[in-house]
Design goal:
TIM Barrel; 12 helices; binds 3-methyl-2-oxobutanoic acid; 8-stranded parallel β-barrel; 2 domains; alpha/beta; single chain
């Protein structure tokens, strides 16, 4: 049965955890679709892990639509959330609504995610009134990397922690079905989780959140540009891929590949006529 926003609400009530991974391509989407992972996020982290940018700021609506489409074709049983890229929702409610609509109409996502608190509640209200499910995102929101002066843990002072709690309540009030909490102290995440009736999805926010999300290239040990403290490596695919690529290279150069089993035959009669 397809996971929906209703499943998220039920999990919160039943105190059952939610697992999410990022996803950006059809092949990985098909693999995740066969697993017990509940939902995927086509994150604007696509800018880092797929496009090689140093941050998420250059990601465009066209990027999100292309990658989102690929994922929604493969992840048929999962809730597919698609990130709204930097400056696709900040300018006006109208701009936000049009772009959120494109992520459902053109990319076939089931929900959108945007970063921010009270400042973006008018956009969230407009989207939810139009039938677009919205996931919020608070804490270390990567699109504000320049404002934060780097990727730093957020919500550590009393003022910042209180603001984060107020923002979380405002997002819930505006209609969000869930909120990502990124890189905040785990005890603050626990308080937010306790105060909300919608699920919190943590990344670097501790075990008390209602669910967790990781970037799949991080958890598979594929992306080595930087590795945040909160990442756990469930595999070392970088080494496995490096070895496989080198084995292939060696076999090509030693003429061990392709062997007979990988080649196609032609009738001898036809062949004779070719000389
Ligand atoms: O873009 C992304 O991958 C995200 C997650 C880190 C939550 O927003």
């Amino acid at each position: 049965m397809k996971i929906t926003v209703a499943t998220f609400a039920k999990r919160k009530v039943e105190k059952q955890k939610i697992s999410m991974l990022t996803c950006y391509d059809y092949t990985t989407a098909k693999i995740i679709n066969q697993t017990n992972v509940d939902a995927v996020l086509v994150g604007d982290s696509v800018g880092n892990v797929m496009l090689g940018y140093p941050d998420t700021l250059s990601v465009t609506m066209e990027d999100m639509i292309t990658y989102g489409r690929a994922v929604s074709r493969g992840c048929t049983e999962k809730l597919v959330v698609i990130d709204m890229p930097f400056m696709s929702y900040q300018v006006s409610v109208e701009q936000a609504l049009i772009n959120a609509g494109r992520l459902l109409k053109e990319a076939r996502g089931n929900a959108v995610k945007l970063e921010g608190g009270q400042n973006i509640c008018p956009q969230i209200k407009a989207m939810t009134q139009a039938g677009i499910p919205v996931m919020g995102h608070l804490g270390m929101t990567p699109q504000s990397v320049n404002a934060f002066g780097g990727n730093k843990v957020q919500g550590k002072t009393e003022a910042a922690a209180k603001k984060l709690i107020e923002d979380a309540l405002a997002l819930q009030e505006a209609g969000c079905f869930a909120i990502v909490l990124e890189c905040i102290p785990h005890k603050l995440a626990a308080i937010v989780t306790e105060k909300l009736s919608i699920p919190t999805i943590g990344i670097g926010a501790g075990a008390q959140c209602d669910g967790q999300i990781l970037v799949y290239q991080d958890m598979l040990g594929m992306y080595k540009d930087f590795s945040p403290k909160f990442v756990k490596h469930y595999a070392n695919l970088s080494d496995i891929m490096t070895n496989a690529f080198n084995d292939y290279d060696k076999e090509v150069k030693e003429q061990a590949f392709p062997s007979e089993e990988h080649t196609f035959k032609i009738d001898e009669e036809v062949l004779e006529k070719l000389y």
